[in-house]
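Format notes (please read before filing issues)

Several people have asked whether sequences and structure tokens are stored in separate files. They are not. Every record keeps both together, in the order shown below: the sequence lines, then the token lines. Line labels are part of the format and must not be stripped during preprocessing.
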Amino acid sequence: MSSNTKEFWAWFLTEPATWAVPGDDFDEEELMPLYDKLEEHFPELTPNVSWQPDEHWEIEFCAKLNPSMAPLIRKIVAEAPALESWRFVAFGPPLGFSPLYVAHLGLLWEQMPVDEILVERRPHGPTVALTVYLPDYDDSLREGFDTAVRLLLEAGMGEAWLLEQLGDLQLADRSEAPEPAIVISELGSTD
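Then the structure lines:
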């Protein structure tokens, strides 16, 4: 893991693409050195470069579901230079709970059946502990189910919540859900 953020930002300020103004005649290919350097410096993260036409460029740093990367992401963004045409964002925002493609994880579903997934909050000190009850849960596929649920929570609650607020995650079959369990999409309204 590279944590030399000062070296990265020093390079960033010398890169011609840094000084391009959104809305100008700017070729996206000119951003490739930024993508490459981001990947080279921070391979354990998922940096995403985007822009709002005629407004600003943006780099969003994400942690690939790895909570140990949260301090590095916060450090990167804290040490970012103040530039008029750029915004630097730590963590992906909450996008809401919606069916999520998970066929690549070897599960029974092509998309997560969000309306059929129940969740129960459990006491866990300063963080949140959840038991997630999934239809057709199979413990032999636990790793795939765990990844799918974490991706769903990241989308629904936001990456910072997943990395810094979720303390414990248990999985079980929906048939085991107790009466107070709620549909996972209602989770945001209880926080």
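For reference, the curators noted about this record: The chain has two domains: 5-90, 103-186. The chain has five helices and seven strands.
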